[in-house]
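@channel sequence for tomorrow's demo:
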Amino acid sequence: MTIKRIGHRYSDSKSGATIDVWFPRSNKEIARSCLAQKVGLIKGDFVEVEIASVDDAPKSAEEAYLRLHLLSECAVKPNEINLDGVFGLLNNVAWTSAGPVLPNEVESLRELIAGEDHQLNVTSIDKFPRMTDYVIPEGVRIGNADRVRLGAHLASGTTVMHEGFCNFNAGTLGSSMVEGRISAGVVIGDGSDIGGGASIMGTLSGGGTQVISMGKKNLLGANAGLGISLGDNCIIESGLYITAGTKIKMPDGEVVSARTLSGQSGLLFRRHSQTGAVEAIVTDGSLWGGLNTALHSND
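structure tokens (generated this afternoon):
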């Protein structure tokens, strides 16, 4: 299926390097304006981008931006679109309240807008901007927009609290509470809760290739960590970090590596308070109570 969209592009006036591209959902030619453009540091124009196949790697920054938009619009799911080489295609950008510029142009921007009634703020220096500056997903709440990158996939009913984080090519497939970290490549099923300070291993740091996923109605306790996939109705107690090599004591006394339990459902992972051994027991995952539906009706 061919995807063709019209976007508004900002580029550096001196080098011509692409800074960003915004693709309106309406697919209309809608121009943006900012002080950085007014003073001539960046230029704006319209560009039509066509993706013949999402299975092929992106070939340009413009195409990379369109793929990130598709993820945040929930038009495609994480790991269903090829993003190979995306870091090499995107420029590092200073995202400022006066518009995006290359980092080495920030001082020039300050000087050129000195006569404007504007206090310049630099919110980040990164290859990826905030999702909410480009895409507003339907039916979500986000406590701190700085912590959700463009390319995050947040399904309707998702709540991302102030300390929650969601990387690009990762996110939720249904109503979920996100108070911890969802790293790149990670997918969270409907009805799951990522507790405060919790973290899920992604596919970027250390060059990892194993995609971690959580099924439906799982609870990852506060300050816990996950390095294997979970099926449905699982619980990991607060403060317990499970990696693939963690030794797990089963109900019959057998000790196995956690990787052998990856993807299984209905398990409670806990640490014995006296021996310190990590245990897995079969449990009714619904015992943790599930999400508060009133909190995730994000109309």
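heads up for whoever presents: The chain has a mean pLDDT of 94.
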